[in-house]
Write a structure and sequence with these properties.
alpha/beta, Rossmann fold, Dihydrodipicolinate Reductase, domain 2, 7-stranded mixed beta sheet, 16 strands, globular, NAD(P)-bd_dom_sf, Epimerase_deHydtase, Saccharopine dehydrogenase
């Protein structure tokens, strides 16, 4: 059955990648691209997330699914999707915005599939965690971030705005206030990266795994491909230099982007009886993996087997089927150690 999909933010780095992967896997579907500026084809729609007057084109083109790949801080698109019973998938929200949007959605009557997919790399961590069969006591996510990788503006802007602000990790089901780039821990990363010093890092999986999946202990730490940059950011935080820098200066620090590199993360899962480490490498980097994750979620939504309600994206999938789908993609390698 043919459906009409619009990717809002579809001219951005991740949006373009979503469109490419989705079209290659689903040629029978109609894909429209939403952007603030007019495009050159009939599939290019003017949709500005800050201007609800531009949303009428979504109804005019009988859109069945909105994929949001641009930050909608006021949740105008979310409200529009709920009011008009349109399926919605959002991959963009940092933790504070995700929590606020989730609370908003819970206060509304839902007659479509509303999916939040803002965890690390398109919200696949929760699905991979759920391949663990024992009762989970602790999840630790270790992110390897390469400054040589292609990076969009949204994550850089989030770091610039929030690097000096505390956020929560979880211990014994209680939030523990921490800051980015503190509380160093040496971790042996997979895929030949080796031992690296990793520091606190805020991603929505902290909230999702504790508050939604009820995992008592959840931590996330990251390291850069450059040991010097990793050390320097930790020193800046320790000396409170981020507190005195302007937002513009902080954006300059976090706004660099390379021409492409691998993306790697390791998930260490601890249960009452055993443990498991799941390691994933995307040879084509963050944008490719995030976009693929969004496509896998969208494909599940289009199967029309799901009830109309609010989901976090990992809840769309049978965990082992998600693992198989990721493994089947040519640029992704997954290793599991039990």
């Amino acid at each position: 059955m043919q459906s009409n999909i619009v990717i809002i933010g579809g001219t951005g780095m991740v949006g373009k990648t979503i469109a490419r992967i989705f079209k290659s896997r689903n040629p029978q579907q109609q894909v429209f691209i939403g952007s603030r500026k007019a495009g050159k084809t009939e599939k290019d729609l003017v949709i500005d997330v800050t201007d609800p007057k531009t949303f009428q084109t979504i109804l005019d083109h009988h859109i069945d699914l909105i994929i949001l790949s641009v930050n909608d801080k006021e949740d105008y698109i979310l409200r529009f999707a709920i009011e008009n019973n349109i399926d919605y998938l959002d991959i963009t929200k940092p933790t504070p915005d995700l929590v606020r949007a989730y609370e908003l959605a819970k206060s509304q009557k839902i007659n479509s599939k509303i999916v939040f997919s803002s965890g690390w790399m398109g919200g696949i961590v929760g699905g991979l965690v759920n391949t663990f069969s024992d009762q989970i006591k602790e999840v630790s996510l270790f992110v390897y971030y390469s400054v040589k990788d292609l990076a969009g503006e949204s994550s850089a802007h989030f770091m610039a705005e929030n690097v000096a602000k505390p956020f929560s990790m979880y211990k014994n089901n209680k939030p523990v206030s921490v800051k980015h780039f503190l509380n160093s821990e040496v971790f042996e990363y997979s895929f030949g990266i080796g031992k690296r010093t990793a520091y606190n890092f805020d991603v929505p999986d902290l909230y999702i795994l504790n508050q939604i999946e009820r995992v008592p202990d959840v931590t996330v730490k990251m390291t850069y491909n450059s040991k010097f940059i990793t050390w320097l950011l930790g020193a800046f935080q320790s000396l409170r230099i981020f507190n005195i820098l302007s937002l513009k200066e902080r954006k300059m620090i976090f706004g660099s982007s390379g021409k492409g590199d691998q993306s790697v993360f390791d998930i260490v899962i601890t249960g009452h009886k055993n443990s498991k480490t799941i390691s994933l490498k995307s040879a084509k980097g963050q944008a490719e993996l995030t976009a693929l994750s969004a496509v896998l979620h969208a494909e599940e939504m289009l199967k029309n087997r799901l009830d109309h309600r609010i989901y976090f994206s990992h809840q769309l999938h049978h965990p082992n089927k998600l693992l198989d789908a990721l493994n089947a993609y040519e640029s992704i390698t997954i290793q599991t150690i039990e």
